[in-house]
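To whoever picks this up:

The parser on our side crashed when reading a file containing two proteins. I've narrowed it down to the boundary between the first structure block and the second sequence. Both blocks are reproduced below exactly, byte for byte. First block:
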Amino acid sequence: MRWTDVTEIAIALEDARPDADNVNLRFTDLHAWVCALPGFADDPHKSNEKILEAIQMAWVEERD
């Protein structure tokens, strides 16, 4: 997975952290969780607030 794989990351996060409060989370935590996902293979420094927000929104939608 890469930072642009927003939906795939959201699904993986829901599988890995089903009890996490994905609405009220810090982007620093989200960044660390994404980087720790099995299969994530992108440069950790290539993320930004816009990407992390997109991942968060996709994760919220995935949970619904």
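<<boundary where parser fails>>
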Amino acid sequence: MHIVYILECADGTYYTGYTTDLERRVAEHNDGVGAKYTRGRTPVEVIHHERYPDRSTAMAREYEIKQLTRGEKERLVGAETA
């Protein structure tokens, strides 16, 4: 399974990424060995994730999410909790 995820960092910013093992990847971010962006912004928390059957679809979706504005990402995340 291929997973696209959004993290909320300790400073309130969002980070979007891709993985095949969400639990492991979040642990890497929190251990400071994940993406450079999240290293100084721990702890991070998963606030949204989507699963896809293949890598190419997941990577395309990751790109789409990264192009969204902060407000659009907040609506995407809010739709999950509503």
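After patching the parser it read the second block fine. Residues 55-67 form the longest helix (13 residues). The mean pLDDT is 94.
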